Fold this protein.
Amino acid sequence: MIKAVIFDMDGVLLDSEPLIREAAMRMFAEHGLIVQPEDFRPFVGTGEDRFIGGVAEKYGFPLDPVRDKARTYEIYADVVRGKIEPLNGAPEFIEKARARGLGLAVASSADRIKIEINLSGIGIPLGTFDAVVSGSDVTKKKPNPEGFLKAAQKLQVAPQECLVVEDAVNGVQAAKAAGMKCLAVMTSFTAEDLRKADWVAKDLADAPGETLEW
């Protein structure tokens, strides 16, 4: 029986990937390196360390993880101002889950500073959720299930009682590895890419009713 819903953030509650990508591209450009938008695609959903680091590795760029990630977030905070909003159906899906008495968590590979910037920006504050797990709270990122398992632990529910909402292939793999059911939304990948999820929907407004009723 479902007792909790664990949400990924980027691509599920909002689509900030183009904006963090823009911020990272600007950061690299400040160092004289011009990168391409498609360079980031293999690292979607893996957290900013890998999102930025993977591109740096591709170009042999000597990344300073602490300095360059901090600068990326500085740029990001300016880039997103007034430009982010919740994805279609996200607030309503959260309300439905809460009305059913389900626990709510966010488990994102992003750092907490990005989670706070994003949720504040879309009007769904951290206090909406009973638990928050950020990328800095885990030692292994998706597709490893550590983040989702920590969220379940914080919610005091068993993994098999959780529904994960994801948009990335790495996230679906992590949810299934955790022993959880998964609803995937097609923000970033196709239905074929996300086929290992239990349900696939265009967005949360299109989510099948049974995702909250099993």
